[in-house]
Structure formats: C-alpha cells, structure tokens
Specification:
Number of strands: 11
Structural class: alpha+beta
Radius of gyration: 25 Å
Strand order of the largest sheet: 5-6-7
Order of helices and strands: HHEEEEHEEEEEHHHHEEHHHHH
Number of helices: 12
Strand content: 5-15%
Largest sheet: 3 strands, antiparallel
Distance between the termini: 51 Å
Shape: elongated
Length: about 280
C-alpha cells in the first residue's frame, strides 16, 4: 500500500513511545494510497466525503458499488442475504449485528434502545458499588443527591447528546432515576404508622432538579447548537440531504427530529437560524 519498507520492518515494542506515531504514519499512508481514485458522496459545499477514519476504524463511503470498486480496498457485501462474514479480497471478517464504538453501542437497526438499556445497567452497577454511602446516616440528603448527580447520572447519560430516544427509552431512564431517589429520600410514614413508598409527584417536589430525561434533552439541544454552527465536516454531514427518498411506512424518528421536537416545546421553530444566533 506504499508504506515505507523501513517502517514495516520496525518492530513495535510494548510501551514504545514511538508506537502511536508510527501507527498514525502507516495508517495515513494506507488511506492516501487507497483513496487516490476514490469517489465519495458530494456534500452541500461541493466537497467529497470518501472515508471516515478514527484510529484503526475506517468507513469507506461511495454513492454506488462502481465508485466503491475504484478504491484500493474493496468490501463486497450482497444485499438481502443472511451472510455471516464480510469478504475483503481474500480475507473474511465476522459480520455482527452490533458493536461497541468509542464506548457507545452501534447496531444494524440504527436505534439506541439497546444502548439506553446498557447505560442503565452500567449506571446501576455504579450505583450499587456506592450503596453503603447512599444508605449511610452520616451523609445528608443533599450530599447523596450530589453523589448521584456527579457520579451515577453521568454514567447513565454517556453520549446521550447523540441519542434519538423514544418515549419508551425515556420511561426506562425515569424508572432508573426514581428508584435511586426513593433510596435517597427514604420511605415516609403514613397516619397509621406504616411506611409507604413515595410517589412520583412527591419525588419531583423533593428533588427540585431537572429529571434525567429533561437534562438529556437539554444536553442534546446544546450539542445540536454546536453542530448547526459548525463549519467543519460534522456540520456539513448533519446538514447534507441525500438525493433519495425515505422508505414507505411510518418513518423512524431521527436525531434531528427529536431535537426539533424538543425545541418546539420552547416555541423555537427556525432551529438552525436560532442556533446561529448565540445572543438568543
């Protein structure tokens, strides 16, 4: 692929300070060689996007199979066939329905349901590791709320700014949060002297902070503002409109659809224009 022979022969030692730099040089050489004749998708600014790469994860992008074949690296996939592997030249790679990328769960259905479930599971593990502190009578309720907001809640909301959540996803997150708040505020004693579990409305009155779903929407909206103001690749990709129609049936809500719905609750209609005006 045009990598210098000396670089290939150099043995990579564990803990070598040059290993990361050598890896970047080798990968850069491979990418440049592979995309010499590549044709990607044309963005709104007339630039072409041919590949997206982060570390050793590379995604080749083309408008047609013929354009993809012009790259030095060709991935052959047959549509509508349940194949268990991907073939790259003479090499076979396992095909999976989901995988973890930068700590987030990516699946072939392009939804976040499993990701939300996994974040809740990981956050619960974090919470139960701190259960002695949440049960302690030496800590005040205010300290326990801070413990939840600073340590547990961020685990559940990791990468939530990119989620296109549904009502069901929001319900699961709400149940997770209320279970922790009930532990923090403890059961109450009724007129008969028996302990009762606190209701949802009472928890809201005691907590007096934005719910986990509310803070998720706020984080997502804030990220959308950065994306719409961006003049780089991330802004171009988000604003890009492919020249194809969405399939029939009820269309699945996209991330941008969820953001616009959140902003409608704030009486914001011209979302992109509003994002560009920082003073508002």
């Amino acid at each position: 692929m045009g990598i210098p022979e000396k670089l290939v022969r150099m043995k990579r030692a564990q803990g070598d300070t040059l290993s990361s730099s050598l890896f970047n040089i080798a990968l850069e050489s491979v990418i440049r060689k592979a995309l010499i004749q590549a044709k990607g998708i044309k963005m709104n600014n007339n630039n072409e996007l041919t590949a997206v790469a982060y570390a050793d994860d590379i995604v080749l992008i083309a408008e047609s199979e013929d354009d993809l074949r012009n790259t030095s690296i060709t991935v052959l996939i047959q549509r509508n066939l349940n194949i268990s592997y991907l073939k790259v030249d003479d090499y076979k790679f396992e095909r999976v329905q989901s995988f973890k990328y930068l700590g987030a769960e990516i699946n072939e259905n392009a939804n976040r349901h499993e990701e939300v479930k996994k974040r809740i599971k990981v956050a619960n593990i974090c919470y139960y590791s701190l259960i002695p502190l949440f049960k302690s009578r030496l800590l005040s309720i205010k300290s326990k709320i801070t413990l939840y907001k600073v340590i547990v809640k961020p685990v559940a909301q990791y990468a939530c700014s990119t989620w296109a959540t549904t009502k069901s996803d929001g319900g699961k997150l709400g149940v997770f949060e209320r279970n922790i708040l009930r532990k923090i505020f403890c059961p109450m004693r009724n007129n008969d002297g028996e302990y009762e579990v606190r209701g949802n409305r009472e928890l809201d009155d005691l907590y007096k902070k934005p719910t986990i779903v509310g803070s998720l929407k706020s984080t997502r909206t804030s990220w959308a503002g950065h994306v719409w103001r961006s003049e780089g690749m991330i802004g171009s990709i988000t604003k890009w409109k492919p020249g194809i129609k969405r399939p029939r049936r009820r269309p699945r809500q996209r991330w941008v659809d969820r953001v616009k719905e959140d902003l409608k609750l704030l009486n914001v209609r011209n979302t992109e224009e509003y994002a560009n005006d920082r003073e508002e």
